[in-house]
Amino acid sequence: MSGTDPSSPSGVVTIGESMVLLQPMSTGPLAYAPLFTRSIAGAEANVAIGLSRLGRKVRWIGRVGNDPFGDIILSTLAGEGVDISMAERDPQYPTAVYFKEFKRYGDPNVYYYRKGSAASRLSPEHVKPEWFEGARHLHVTGITPALGQHTADAVKESMVQARQMGLTVSFDPNLRRKLWDDELARQTLLSLIPYCDLFLPGLEEAEFLLGERTEEEYGTEFRAMGPKAVVIKLGERGAVGFVAERVLRADPYPISRVVDTVGAGDAFAAGLLSGLLDADWEDAETFESALKTANTLGALATQFNGDWEGLPKSDELARILSGRDITR
Ligand code: KDG
């Protein structure tokens, strides 16, 4: 179904819900927005597109309805070069939808219409070894586990199976408090950390999970739970990585305005993974360079409306990272 082959050594698999995204063409209260643009989104799909644009082979696995919104999700992902050959269509339940609201202050508000969606029916019995065959890495987030106990169990099962098959696993907690109760979120997200190799919280998420600590304490405590590496996103202060007893920092990519923060964490993950796949994580230079790419992608993702549309391709990213202007 797509032009990519995830059986290459650098192949990445990602699993999660993708939704149709409706964004108002005007700023202000959603209730008074008359016109919308239609796109697709979903944390794991955003990462898949970001990686595919950087030349990585990616397989997205998820469940959509047998409806026009399912069609547009699959055709958009396939058009972006993502392998959708293992995505499933549910004959009974629909594809989810979500709306953004831009009020000109703070992060955009999001409104979900996803209860009872095809993706929310994902359960551990769906997870199968074919999903991971030939791939090197699995990326999952804390959004799919928020959809129900069976989706949380399915994410855990996929982390377990992937590791049994020799893949490394990254896990972004992507806390979405609208989707679940705080205590359940904390317990479930903490319970998944031991099954990943690379844990990617934001600073606020780290505090939500462990309480107030220093950055170094977060790094030490999360690594003690199992992951080989931990990267904490620090927003305007860049990012800090903890790997092999080292603390590695990368400055933020400078930006002068923010248009839409949604999707920035996924872009960060795509940038980081693109730098770490097939590389030695314990090599400080490699890790710092991956952090720099991650910060750059995360910052670029805040510069446009939409969760992934403006993400760069590899040649554009190389130009941006080298500081060269497009006209020179
Ligand atoms: O990280 C961005 C995601 O939040 C967005 O694309 C939609 O997956 C989504 C969600 O559940 O919020």
Topology readout:
Layout: E1 12-15, E2 19-24, E3 36-41, H1 43-53, E4 58-61, E5 63-65, H2 68-79, E6 88-90, E7 97-101, E8 109-113, E9 137-141, H3 149-164, E10 168-172, H4 182-192, E11 198-199, H5 203-210, H6 215-224, E12 229-233, E13 239-243, E14 246-250, H7 264-276, H8 284-300, H9 314-322
Parallel strand pairs: 1-4, 1-9, 2-7, 5-6, 9-10, 10-11, 11-12
Antiparallel strand pairs: 2-3, 7-8, 12-13, 13-14
Helix pairs in contact: 1-7, 7-8
Describe this structure as you would to a colleague.
This protein has 328 residues and is of the alpha/beta class. It is 33% helix and 19% strand. The chain has 9 helices and 14 strands. It has helices at 43-53, 68-79, 149-164, 182-192, 203-210, 215-224, 264-276, 284-300, 314-322, and strands at residues 12-15, 19-24, 36-41, 58-61, 63-65, 88-90, 97-101, 109-113, 137-141, 168-172, 198-199, 229-233, 239-243, 246-250. It has an 8-stranded mixed beta sheet with strand order 4-1-9-10-11-12-13-14, with helices on both faces. A 4-stranded mixed beta sheet has the order 3-2-7-8. Helix 1 (43-53) crosses helix 7 (264-276) and helix 7 (264-276) packs antiparallel against helix 8 (284-300). The relative contact order is 0.13. Residues 1-7 have low confidence and may be disordered. Bound molecules: 2-keto-3-deoxygluconate. The site of 2-keto-3-deoxygluconate has 13 residues, from helix 1 and helix 7.
